[in-house]
DsbA family protein (Novosphingobium pentaromativorans), 237 residues
Amino acid sequence: MGNGTKFAVIAGCVVALVGVGGWFGGRIAVEKVVHDYILENPEIIPEAMDNLQRKQASQQLAGVRQNVETPFPGAVLGNPNGKVTMVEFSDYACGYCRRSLPDVAELLKKNPDLRIVVRELPIIGPESPAAAKMALAAAEQGKFPQFHDAMFAMGQVDAQSIEAAAQKAGLDMERARKVAAGPAVAQELSRNMEIAGRLGFSGTPSWVAGERLISGAVGVDQLSQAVAEARGGGKPG
């Protein structure tokens, strides 16, 4: 008998006790049965917490999912037309984002139907906004992945490294500077800040996949599980 079935049986007994003992006695009976059941089956606690987190994530995503999963044009890694979407909130000055790069590369290698929508969230360093703006300018030229990789490879974020990453990505610099300073980029960064706040994200990297909201450099296994669930399966492929 599984945990769910056993608990249903116990719940039925509790209902009977409530009927026999009245409200007060029934409440005591409920508390004792639940207490004893949890002590005897502690493995249900992670499952219950997981279900709670999913429910909370679903509530937080309600009404903003389309905005979350719709990229700034071109700001995508992997398959732009992928059937499975993961969203990453990222900052080029974030060491944990840099640490997650191999995880992202592995996810994309193993999931050819995956697109990762990158939402620039420049909150860490003084030059983070400038790097984010240039990244979106690179996206406008269809060269977001090239700039993304080059910028993280620089190891630091300052005016010189941003310029070097842009040139390495092969950007038309005059056009890029104009786009980076334009209203569309400013609106995108403001929108990302608003969405992150609504989802409860206060740092980078942060991730959205299906009904999962994940904070931090959690490793490829947890991200793979989230991608599998977003696809509709229970385990990574």
In short: The beta strands are 76-78, 84-90, 114-120, 206-209, 212-215. The longest strand covers residues 84-90.
